[in-house]
Amino acid sequence: MVSAIRFTGTGPGAHTQDGCSVELYRRMPADGEAEIVAGVVAAGGTILELGSGPGRVTHALVALGYAVTAVDNSAEMLAHVRGAETVLADIEDLDLDRRFDAVLLASTLINFPEAETRAALLTASRRHVRPGGVVLIERRNPDTFATLRPGPVGEEAGIRHVIESVRHEGRLIQATLRSEAADATWTQSFTQEVIDDERMAAELAAAGLRLDRWLDPRRTWGLAVPA
What are phi and psi of 95, to 5 degrees? Predict the structure, then answer.
């Protein structure tokens, strides 16, 4: 039974509140996120990246010529960001005096297992997008996520990822991910919620946003606009 929301992490180095290893995320490369942004945001545009971590996506966006403001609530993560403005803050409480061409809510933050927190994340996104701007949201594919099982899930930059355990209860999924490099091993235990198209549309609408279209065939990247 998935009876508690838990975010824990093990392994060398500092960890964030949700169990992410700073060193692990520092080593991981971007995975095409910047190219997705470039497909819908004009070159040289301003981007607010929410939950930037150590700059895995930030650095790829900066390399493409975007002016990025990277937000995270981990000072250890932000210490690794280069070439972008950094803001140490919880996303839910963020209230800058600027609006941006695009707001990026990546890293499947939309799958957070509490509706109240998801609403606050989307409201913060809406608060910071300029008229005519866009909000890009990454979610887990609801079909494959709902049937997640233990086993290998891929390798990147010499780091092998394996789902050690999975527990399902309704829309909630609790899993432990093990990441193995040649010199270190990390685990992260987390709980997330399956967000299908209907729930996505409803929660966007409640935050004053409207889903305009999906940006990939797997429907993991959604482009939203102010309603």
Answer: -150, 80
